[in-house]
Design goal:
The chain is of the alpha+beta class. 21% of the residues lie in helices and 27% in strands. The protein is built from four helices and nine strands, in the order E-E-E-E-H-E-E-E-H-H-H-E-E. Strands 1, 2, 3, 4, 5, 6 and 7 form a seven-stranded mixed beta sheet that branches. A two-stranded antiparallel ribbon has the order 8-9. Strand 1 and strand 2 (24-31) form a beta hairpin. The longest helix has 16 residues, at 144-159. The radius of gyration is 20 Å and the shape is elongated. The N and C termini lie far apart (67 Å).
Length: 240
């Protein structure tokens, strides 16, 4: 009797992990096994190439796709509960030479000071790469260049009408630091007064009670009212 379920593709989760380092947006990449710096794994595809962190969904361990993404994220960064959002799903017979596969892509936004990178036993390396446009300067394994570009497009598009980049900041921050993160993500300057008016007009931030020394005078420190809170604006950010 033929199994009515038929052959099944293997299912994976890939996570686009983003942070701000040295005034630039960076993505975390892992080096595939079998390269010059990694363990011998000649049967692995794309040996030694860089890729997005992720892994195969284990139905005995992972309770959901998001659970799988969170576990993979914690394995690599030490962060338990960041801002995490599903970008989409990709699947076909050609994206992985081992067979028909489907992957579900998430984007995670992390503050740099929250990270504790952990190199997994089956990887040759783990490193941050600066984002250049919608890509990085190294070729990526599988279809990960497409997945990265899609995640970046989603993030920048959503930044136009939400407070999304706030999750790239530490627990407390100044309004100037918040504006700078928006500008890094969008790749353009924003008008200071209009930006502050917009941020303070929504129930997103609250003063922490502290201050930070700046070049002129101490600036008030703010924090999120809700850890993974997100505010929506009625119109997008316009040019300066």
């Amino acid at each position: 009797m033929i199994d009515p379920r038929g052959p099944r593709p293997f299912t994976t989760v890939d996570v686009v992990i983003l942070t701000i380092r040295e005034e630039r947006l960076h993505v975390l990449l892992v080096q595939r096994p079998g390269g010059p710096n990694g363990p011998d794994a000649s049967d692995e595809p794309f040996p030694g190439m860089w890729a997005l962190p992720g892994g195969v969904v284990d139905i005995a361990t992972h309770t959901s796709l998001e659970d799988c993404a969170l576990r993979k994220l914690e394995e690599k960064t030490g962060v338990r509960s960041p801002y995490l959002e599903q970008v989409g799903s990709w699947g076909d017979a050609a994206r992985d030479p081992r067979g028909w596969s489907a992957t579900h892509v998430y984007v995670a936004l992390l503050a740099e000071d929250s990270l504790n990178l952990q190199r997994g036993g089956n990887t040759g390396g783990l490193a941050w790469f600066p984002v250049e446009g919608d890509a990085v300067a190294v070729p990526l394994a599988f279809d990960h260049a497409t997945l990265l570009a899609a995640a970046l497009e989603r993030m920048r598009s959503k930044t136009e009408y939400t407070s999304l980049p706030v999750h790239l900041l530490p627990e407390t921050f100044t309004l100037s630091e918040l504006q700078r993160v928006f500008e890094i993500v969008l790749g353009r300057p924003l008008e200071k007064k209009a930006f502050r008016t917009r941020m303070l007009a929504v129930p997103l931030l609250e003063e922490s009670g502290g201050q930070k020394k700046t070049g002129r005078r101490p600036a008030a420190l703010y924090r999120l009212k809700e850890k993974n809170g997100l505010a929506y604006f009625s119109r997008s950010f316009g040019p300066v």
